[in-house]
Design goal:
It is a single chain. The protein has helices at 52-60, 102-112, 117-130, 146-158, 176-193, 204-210, 228-233, 238-243, 261-266; strands spanning 14-23, 26-36, 41-45, 67-72, 75-76, 87-90, 164-168, 196-201, 213-218, 221-226, 248-254, 286-292, 298-301, 310-322, 326-332, 338-344, 356-362, 366-370. It has 2 domains: 4-236, P-loop containing nucleotide triphosphate hydrolases (Rossmann fold, 3-Layer(aba) Sandwich); 246-370, OB fold (Dihydrolipoamide Acetyltransferase, E2P). The protein is built from 9 helices and 18 strands. It is 24% helix and 31% strand. Strand 1 and strand 2 (26-36) form a beta hairpin. Helix 2 crosses helix 3, helix 2 (102-112) runs parallel beside helix 4 and helix 3 crosses helix 4 (146-158). By secondary structure, the protein is α+β, with helices and mostly antiparallel strands. The chain has a 6-stranded mixed beta sheet with strand order 6-7-8-3-9-10, with helices on both faces. It has a 5-stranded antiparallel beta sheet with strand order 13-17-14-15-16, with no helix packed on it. It has a 4-stranded antiparallel beta sheet with strand order 2-1-4-5, with helices on one face.
């Protein structure tokens, strides 16, 4: 019986060097460089209009860069047509042929490559088994659910053992429960095949679940690349902190000795300057922002005094949101800014709307970043 081994492929190493794509005066991709390792699952994450899909289309060969280089396993392919690049592609809207059965849809790229009929049957059976649709080969797309159709699209893309599988918002049209399940299926398929996966999404949770690494796009450029935990725990920019997960962001001035407005307000007495290096001696005060994730924050009684290594601020609870397994508290700080606390079920505080409280967190659980006018997430 055909198995996943029939579809296993050596994952391609993909190198993007200074890629730029212009449409007249508009720069869709702006000097993007990225090294994708063989067999890696990398996600291009960002809001609409950030350049992630254009970058994927350049890799696929559907679009040509204005400048820059693209290589696969060391070979330049910018001039190679899409159908000769040996890459599979999965789109959001399936793109299945309605007049063909599931098996015929999956076999289509093999037929185009003149694979013998008997071998085609073996590979189609292996692809169907990989996506857990072994008994559905005789059905037509209209007889399948949206999730099943998307799995057929994945099977069609992997059936000829591509060196890279490119996926453009493949789960965007599905409901949340099905999307969550298919995320795990895609992760399983990647582990079984060993193929390089390049995945585009604007869904931060999806990126966190699936990826070996995430490249966060903003206004045509990559803001940061790294493993999910690194980007979440130690974002390099305010944009990354805002886009990848929820954050409380506290702004102030950082002076050369680290004892500026921000440090005075957020640093517990007697503890050393906390989150990142202070500006060089002799430099002028600079705007800074302290980033804390909501699950790292805790709410205590109004007269609570933290010990060494902890920060504290007075706050007022302005709202609460019940989420089943957790609860969010919305707070207002003395300067009028907002804070967000996530409490897990079973360890909820007694705080409710209107209460005066103390907001606390460990010094080590915050990140000090330069303030930036580009930090806002703009949807286009």
């Amino acid at each position: 019986m055909p198995t996943t081994n029939d579809l296993a492929a050596h994952g391609a190493g993909i190198e993007l060097s200074g890629l730029t794509k212009r449409y007249g005066d508009f720069v869709a991709v702006d000097d993007v460089s990225l090294s994708i390792k063989p067999g890696e699952f990398i996600t291009l994450l960002g809001p609409s209009g950030s350049g992630k899909t254009t970058t994927l289309n350049i890799i696929a060969g559907f679009d040509q860069p204005t400048t820059g280089e693209l290589t696969v396993d060391g070979t330049a392919i910018a001039a190679t047509p899409a159908h000769r690049r040996g890459m599979g592609m999965v789109f959001q809207h399936y793109a299945l042929f309605p007049h063909m059965t599931v098996a015929e849809n999956i076999a289509y790229p093999l037929k185009q490559r003149k694979v013998p009929k008997a071998r085609r049957a073996e590979l189609v059976a292996a692809a169907l088994a990989t996506v857990h649709l072994g008994e559905y080969g005789h059905r037509y797309p209209r007889e399948l659910s949206g999730g099943q159709q998307q799995r057929v699209a994945v099977a069609r893309a992997i059936v000829y053992s591509p060196r890279a599988l490119l996926m453009d918002e493949p789960l965007g049209a599905l409901d949340k429960k099905l999307r969550d399940w298919l995320q795990l299926e895609i992760k399983r398929i990647h582990g079984e095949l060993g193929t390089t996966f390049v995945y585009v999404t604007h869904d931060q949770d999806e990126a966190l679940v699936l990826s070996d690494r995430i490249a966060v796009f903003n206004q045509g450029r990559i803001e940061q690349v790294g493993p999910a935990d690194e980007l979440y725990e130690r974002p390099a920019t305010l944009f990354v902190a805002r886009f990848l997960g929820e954050s409380t962001i506290l702004r102030g001035d950082v002076t050369p000795d680290g004892i500026g407005v921000c440090a005075r307000l957020l640093q517990a007495p007697g503890t050393p300057p906390s989150t990142g290096p202070a500006p060089a001696a002799g430099s002028s005060p600079e705007a800074g922002a302290l980033v804390v994730r909501p699950e790292r924050l805790a709410v205590r009684e109004a007269d609570f005094s933290p010990g060494p290594g902890w920060n504290a601020l007075p706050a007022t609870v302005t709202g609460e949101i019940y989420l089943g397994s957790s609860r969010k508290l919305e707070l207002r700080l003395p300067d009028g800014s907002a804070a967000l606390v996530r409490e897990q079920a079973g360890s909820l505080s007694d705080a409710h709307g209107g209460d005066e409280v103390t907001l606390t967190w460990r010094v080590a659980d915050s990140v000090l970043l330069p303030d930036s006018p580009d930090a806002e997430v703009v949807l286009t």
